[in-house]
Amino acid sequence: MKKNVIEKIEKALREAHRLASQYTAPMPDDKWYNAVMTRVRAVHDAKADALQRFIWPFAAASAACALTAALYAVFSGSGSGYSVFGVFIDDPSGISALQLFL
Amino acid sequence: MPDTHSDDSALQELIGRIIAGDTDEFEVIVRRYSAYVFKIAASYIPQEAVSEAAQEVFVSAFEGLASFNGKSQFKYWLRTITVRTCYDFWRTHYKSRELPVSSLGEVQQGWFQRVINEDSMGLFRDSEMQRDTVEILNWAMAGLAPIERMLITLVYLEGYSVKEAAQMLNLSTINVKVKALRAKAKLRKKILNNLKEGVL
Fold first, then answer.
1. Which residues of B touch A41 (CB under 8 A)?
2. pLDDT recorded at residue A82
3. Please, which residues 54-93 of chain B have a Cβ atom closer than 8 Å to chain A?
4. What sections of the protein cross the membrane (chain A) (predicted)?
5. Which residues of B121-151 are buried (b: 16+ CB within 10 A; e: fewer)?
């Protein structure tokens, strides 16, 4: 008896849930669409800002590392970079350096 | 809902353009799927919270768009985000205990009596009966933990399989099975405890 009652109640609740979600779902309007797109654009802008903030310090740090490595290669007098950088440094008019690319 | 093969490839192209930076194109997706998301959200959370939750769904979808791999249909991917957003809603409200837990009144006790005495589900064509039933459902679910509430809705009311529910809530199948059974037992106990003497 008890099981029968509880099964009936559960069946009723399932039916109620089905009907409720069928008839009572609200619908979006233009104000809602504008609000969503405003938030989406804000998310996009925040991402772009974060990228911008990251790019310049990264570029500066990379350039500093490259310069340090180049200076080390030139002044240590060894390594594969030495001859290339030597050409640039010993050739102020750029003639020899230009020939490398011709 | 457009999800044929040609629509799928058009959708993939649209997603590609959005990821590449054309944010305004996302409005096409929002307009196409908003009614779908509203309908799903309305099954899990109170009507007055649906609009805000649906906004959260689309913002989350935009943020995670690059992770959509196209293996499943886009609307199923969106459904998972919607279900998880509704789960987050209940977690927030459960912590703050913002939703009042009311006791059953005479009208609701009468509801139990009618359901037990009636053999067919035809009585739900009556709008007053529908409203009372929704109230009963809210009352029954009010004391449940967020995960229990979501599992009762997903597995017992919506009819999803344990595996599907586990995937949507990002839980293991075993975990969902145990928790769903526990939630059902809790719900049954609550209903039985509140039935007036003589009803049974």
1. 23
2. 58
3. 54-55, 58-59, 62-63
4. 54-75
5. bebbeeeebbebbbbbbebbbeebebbbbbb
Q: How many CB atoms lie within 10 A of CB B162?
A: 20
Domain B1-99: which topology? Rna Polymerase Sigma Factor; Chain: A (1.10.1740)
Q: Please report, for residues B15, B45, B65, B66, B157, the alpha-carbon distance to residue B69 in angstroms, rounded to integers and kept in the order given.
A: 11, 28, 9, 8, 30
Judged by a CB distance cut-off of 8 A, whether residue B199 touches chain A is yes
| Mean pLDDT, chain B cut into blocks of 10 residues (200 residues total) | 64 91 93 93 88 96 90 90 95 67 65 73 67 78 89 92 94 95 89 64
Helix (H) or strand (E) holding B32: helix B26-44
As annotated, the residues of chain B forming the CATH 1.10.1740.10 domain(s) are 1-99
What digits encode the pLDDT tens for the residues B137-160? 878 888 789 999 999 999 998 899
Q: What ipTM does the predicted assembly reach?
A: 0.76
Architecture of domain B101-200: Orthogonal Bundle (1.10)
Residue of chain B minimizing CA distance to A2: B200
Residues of chain B with CATH 1.10.10.10: 101-200
